[in-house]
Amino acid sequence: MTDMARTWRGELREAVGDLTPGVTLCLLFLVTVFLVGAFAPWIAPYDQAVILTNESFSGSSSEMWLGSDYLGRDVLSRLIYGVRITLFLALIITFLSFFAGVGLGFLAAAFGGRVDDWMSRMNDAMLSFPALMLALIVINSLGSSFAVLVLTIAFIDMTRVYRVARALAVNIMVMDYVEAAVVRGEGKGWIIWHEVLPNALTPLAAEFGIRFTYAILFISALSFLGLGVQPPQSDLGVMVKENMQAILYGEYTTLYPAIGIALIAISMNVLVDWMLQRSSAKLPEEI
What are phi and psi of 181, to 5 degrees? Predict the structure, then answer.
């Protein structure tokens, strides 16, 4: 076993030992949600588009545990598929935004000078646009396909990731071990990969959780406005929009996806807070 593998194994054991009951519960919930989304076609009782009854907003039954939606489709099946699509899109968006935002942020900090100024001012200009308004303009112009939805939100999210990554890299670039690497003649790529990235992993992991939650909320908001995932496919935002009238009939169909969005966001935020508290508690020991 290599030294790096031993280090990661030790870190994992230490992290598991530091888990509190609340964090453990949130982590188990998130793992369960991801497993449900990954195996949705095998878990869901019915296909998400199949109309099973002529009765809208029917109550719970042995055939449909959460009742039917406004078209008579099984709410539980659509909820499971909705979780799958929402998580899939959010993961792709977050990975794309991090790949671009972290890469550009590290490059700006490594080169500095005019390159940093130019890239940062361009990023500030993009941040000045309201995120939702910018997304509405782009999606209305190009259509609401999955590709347009993913690239638009990833581009908007990249500007937030860039600021965090650049700030982290700027602080790390002035450390003694980075200056020693420069004196040894190491290139900027080597310094970014071997010095900046390893020391920025913990705050970036926390930021990844925040951006992932933001992506879920953004996708749900666009779907609620009719510009996200299009029927008959469902995500959590689409389900809230489609079943709003259920409240008028005393049914809770529209609350299930809303509760799902809230629980995922809360669980992810609890996990991120725990990661930040754990990393900040270790700083005095490392210094």
Answer: -65, -35
Residue 134 clears pLDDT 80, i.e. is over it? yes
Q: Indicate the DSSP class of residue 49.
A: T
Q: Per-residue b/e over 39-73, b at no fewer than 16 CB within 10 Å?
A: ebeeebebebeeebeeebbbeeeeebebbbbbbbb
State percent of the chain over pLDDT 90. 22
Would you tell me the crossing angle of helices 255-286 and 75-111 to the nearest 10 degrees?
Answer: 30
Task: State the Cα–Cα distance between residues 186 and 194, nearest whole angstrom.
Answer: 10
Domains of the chain: 44-286 (1.10.3720.10)
132: amino acid identity, one letter: L
For the stretch 147-190, pLDDT in tens is: 888 999 999 999 999 999 999 898 888 788 887 887 887 777 78
Q: What is the pLDDT of residue 8?
A: 43
As a residue count, the chain comes to 287
Give the separation between CA 194 and CA 248, rounded to whole angstroms: 59
Lowest mean pLDDT among 5-14, 200-209, 237-246, 275-284: 5-14
- The SS3 assignment for 28 reads helix
